[in-house]
Design goal:
Helix content: 25-40%
Structural class: alpha+beta
Shape: globular
Number of helices: 6
Number of domains: 1
Distance between the termini: 53 Å
Strand content: 15-25%
Strand order of the largest sheet: 6-5-4-3-7
């Protein structure tokens, strides 16, 4: 990493980002760092992927999906504020790719998921993250879903990670295609649907071919 990044990034966070990007072993003190960041050990994604997302998205967490209700004059929120290293001085610049809506389970009950791509200077890598309005589905509100080389464009980097993430859900538990877009970012609704077609339409074609054989 460059001297500037080393100076601005706490050693703990630097070690976690390095482990995730390189696919290497977590630092020996990882469990203590996760506890400090209040990252649950019972979530579906690895704690490392959750920690990386919290580090990268910390300064934009107020813009991430949030579910709230009012009861007796009290506002209840589903997403809790990220904990952050007290010495962290580097504000990353996540770019919103798009925010989808997986489904509507009732009036006022949607299932949004926002995707961001963040360039990590010094590492020359992009990290792609997925964010929801709370921990209901994955046991966490945010987690990293992929890494891409910094020589790509942000959209190219995001495309592979996001479509792989969707395809994993389709293959593992037959996840239905999402129903709509809440927000455009680096891509518009047309492009988001093209990406979805790559996952769900190609799967239907494979099924049809198997039935014909």
């Amino acid at each position: 990493m460059t001297r500037t990044i080393v100076r601005l990034l706490p050693a703990d966070e630097q070690a976690l980002l390095k482990a995730y990007i390189e696919g290497s072993s977590e630092p020996a003190e990882a469990a203590a760092i996760y506890d400090t960041l209040e990252i649950s050990a019972g979530a579906t994604p690895p704690r490392l992927a959750i920690a990386v997302a919290q580090i990268l998205l910390h300064h934009v967490q107020g813009t991430l999906p949030q579910w709230a209700s009012v009861s007796g004059g009290t506002v209840n929120v589903n997403r809790q504020e990220h904990k952050h290293h007290k010495d962290a001085r580097l504000a990353f610049n996540p770019k919103l790719v798009c925010t989808i809506n997986w489904a509507d389970s009732g009036p006022g009950f949607s299932w949004p998921e926002a995707y961001h791509v963040t360039y990590l200077p010094g590492f020359d890598k992009f990290v792609i993250t997925a964010s929801r309005d709370g921990p209901d589905v994955w046991g966490c509100a945010d987690h990293a879903i992929g890494v891409a080389d910094g020589s790509q464009s942000p959209v190219e980097a995001a495309r592979q990670a996001i479509t792989d993430f969707w395809r994993m859900q389709l293959n593992e538990w037959e996840q239905c295609r999402w129903v709509g877009l809440f927000a455009e970012g680096l891509i518009d609704a047309r492009t988001a649907n093209v990406w979805a077609d790559e996952v769900w339409c190609s799967s239907e074609e494979d099924t049809d071919e198997e039935e014909e054989m």
